[in-house]
Write a structure and sequence with these properties.
This protein is of the alpha/beta class. Helices cover 35% and strands 13% of the residues.
Length: 660
């Protein structure tokens, strides 16, 4: 049912930014709901405010992909800001999609994007505003199916109570398979529908799995499939060849977080940073061709009129043809003052030549993320770059007219000492001194220091979040050394830090098990919403919710894991094998570094996991170099994969494995 336009107009007159809620933007797609060719009506939901959701490239890609088909209708849904939510509840107006203003319950499929964990309570707001039961088991076939995908769902268990099924990995191919499967069982009961969906590779249906726990310590003892359609291991989906990039971006009515057209120039990363979940779960690397990217820029300029192009990747400067790409775009659009944004740069692959090519762009700032300020810590996290090279890069940037360099670091990483923390201030001051040679007092350095949160499917998943008091103490050390007061500004250095309680929440949600579903619901009922926004985050509410269910957030967040502990996400296979991650965790403790995987293959398992896809992938985009580690070479030649138990036995970590 379509909502009443006159009622909506009355509500919009009393809220902030009413343009968030009206739709009708340039390039938005409105299809006929009565068209008999349409097999499925899909609501694509970003569970945050319009200003953030409109900048999400993943949702934009699916919106474009689905609406190019004649048999699918896809529309956008965002979560209303609290002022709009209150007005909607007063008027008993259900949550609706922007294109048709149809209420959410009218769709066949609700696809939720979950790039980060702080969105979980907003998913409950979405379900409630749509007039749908919160729990998946309470929704029968009369309700839309609810699925979720994105980075956060690589540990789906905290949201297992609320989501009908999860899609693991990349969604471009699997979303079509899901829609066709739904059409096969459109008139069946919910159990039959979900059993059919569970047969699709990469689809995880939580209700078809039972989780048991050890009474002694509360850790997981077993994760067991309950029906024949449920696989013991859900292997993530991967799109072997990246589809054509989106060019007809929906142009927002209001200013959004990233008001630009974004092009994914490559997917995946081979650097192997031990803290980085994205670098592990998006393997292998796939690049777009230079010709395709240049054609895409031309079409974007025609179709949208954007004045800024973002060249996106986990590491944009690692794209093999980044120089020719930037040079050609800059030269072709020099008369239109097109700004080229490279939001993710690595100092190792950054060059003076690239800076020269960017001379025509607006000289706002350059951002680098060394993450650690000492050689030792950069070896531990496997993001090694010498301090000398970092300072040389600063020299190149400042000497070419840029006045602001942003540096991002993390504190609380494994083995970190006060010396490592204080080195952040030393490095920042060295960079500022270089800037002042060229710009005097106008040179600035912005230092962002976040707190390390150990993430699933990384070598650091065995680590624990540093105690909150320790995080605060290290932040005080930095503020004192910078001379920063309340504003965080100190003689040319702008210092930003995060609230430790926010890191605690990120940690217990990203590392939690299925028992956290009850905590999430209780926190939401007590008023938790928009947890990623400082003005709305309420830590006391979360602590009350944990206490209500006799659970401890510290147990989930701070505890160092046993070597062979069963993690809540162990039945989700992201491609990199757990035994390899464990060995890399031990390598981190020893300060051993691994070079870029393009130079040296460490046999992490990604090729084994996806060997069935290799026929569809150009060899140059897939093949790894020879394995040089003698032990792994021997195993590979025998076609064997060493198990986790064997790794644990030969390692020094704490374990449940008994001695023989």
């Amino acid at each position: 049912m379509r909502i009443d336009d006159r009622q909506l107009d009355r509500i919009l007159a009393a809220v902030q930014k009413p343009a968030r809620y009206v739709g009708g933007e340039f390039n938005s797609v409105v299809k006929d709901w009565a068209d008999p060719k349409i097999l499925a009506k899909v609501a694509l939901v970003f569970p945050d405010v319009y200003d953030l959701g409109m900048s999400n490239l993943g949702l934009a890609i699916l919106y474009d992909l689905l609406n190019k088909r004649n048999d699918v209708l896809a529309e956008r849904v965002y979560i209303p800001w609290p002022d709009m939510e209150a007005r909607m509840r007063e008027a008993r107006m259900p949550l609706y999609a922007l294109e048709s203003r149809r209420q959410l319950g009218d769709f066949d499929l609700i696809g939720v994007s979950l790039p980060y964990e702080q969105l979980y309570t907003n998913v409950l707001t979405m379900l409630d505003l749509a007039g749908m039961p919160l729990l998946s088991v309470d929704r029968n076939e009369s309700y839309p199916l609810v699925c979720a995908g994105g980075n956060a769902v690589f540990n789906p268990e905290p949201m297992a109570d609320f989501i009908d099924f999860f899609v693991m990995g990349e969604g471009e191919d699997v979303i079509i398979e899901v829609i066709l499967a739904m059409h096969e069982v459109v008139h069946a009961d919910r159990e039959t529908q979900l059993r059919r969906l569970a047969r699709i590779p990469g689809v995880y249906v939580p209700r078809f799995y039972a989780v048991s726990y050890y009474e002694a310590d509360g850790t997981i003892s077993n994760i067991e499939p309950l029906v024949e359609e449920a696989e013991a291991n859900i292997v993530k989906r991967i799109t072997p060849l990246m589809p054509p990039p989106i060019t007809r971006f929906v142009v927002p009515f209001v200013d959004v977080v990233f008001n630009r057209a974004s092009i994914e120039i490559q997917r995946g990363c081979t650097r192997g940073c031990r803290f980085c979940q994205a670098g592990m779960v998006f393997r292998p690397v796939r690049e777009r061709s230079l010709a395709e990217l240049l054609e895409t820029v031309d079409r974007i300029m025609t179709d949208t009129g954007h004045e800024e192009i973002g060249l996106l990747s986990l590491s944009s400067s690692d794209y093999s043809k980044i120089g020719p790409l930037v040079q050609t775009i800059s030269k072709k659009y020099s008369d239109r003052a097109l700004n080229i944004s490279l939001p993710s740069l690595r100092i190792e692959s950054f060059s003076a030549e690239l800076l020269e090519m960017l001379q025509g762009s607006r000289k706002s700032s350059f951002t680098f993320a060394p993450e650690a300020a000492t050689d030792r810590m950069r070896q531990v996290i496997n993001k090694y770059i010498s301090t000398e090279d970092m300072l040389q890069t600063a020299e190149e940037v400042y000497s070419r007219g840029w006045r602001l360099i942003k540096l991002y670091f993390m504190i609380g990483q494994p083995t970190e000492t006060d010396e490592d923390v204080l080195a952040i201030t030393k490095l920042a001051k060295q960079v500022l001194a270089i800037g002042r040679k060229y710009h005097g007092g106008r040179a600035k350095v912005r230092v962002g220091v976040s707190t390390f949160v150990p993430k699933p499917h990384t070598p650091f998943q065995w680590a624990g979040l540093a105690p909150l008091d320790e995080i605060r103490r290290r932040q005080v050390l930095l503020r004192r050394e910078f001379g920063a007061r309340g504003s965080g500004r100190a003689r040319g250095i702008i210092f930003d830090w995060n609230e430790p309680e926010e890191s605690l929440m990120e940690a217990f949600l990203s590392r939690g098990d299925r028992r956290l579903g009850a905590v999430i619901r209780s926190a939401w009922e007590k008023g938790a919403k928009f947890d990623a926004w400082n003005e709305w985050y309420r830590p006391a509410v979360w602590h009350e919710a944990f206490a209500e269910h006799n659970l401890d957030p510290a147990w989930y967040a701070h505890r160092v894991r046993l070597a062979d502990e069963i993690f809540p996400w162990d039945h989700i296979h992201a491609g990199v094998e757990k035994r390899w991650l464990l060995m890399d965790w031990y390598a981190a403790e020893k300060g051993e570094t691994k070079v870029d995987c393009r130079e040296h293959c460490y046999h992490c398992g990604i090729l084994t996991a996806f060997k069935g896809l290799r026929a569809n992938i150009p060899p140059a985009a897939w093949e790894c170099p020879p394995i040089r580690n003698p032990r792994w070479q021997e195993l590979a030649e025998r076609g064997e994969v060493i198990g986790l138990t064997e790794v644990v036995k030969e390692s020094m970590g704490r374990s449940r494995v008994p001695e023989e």
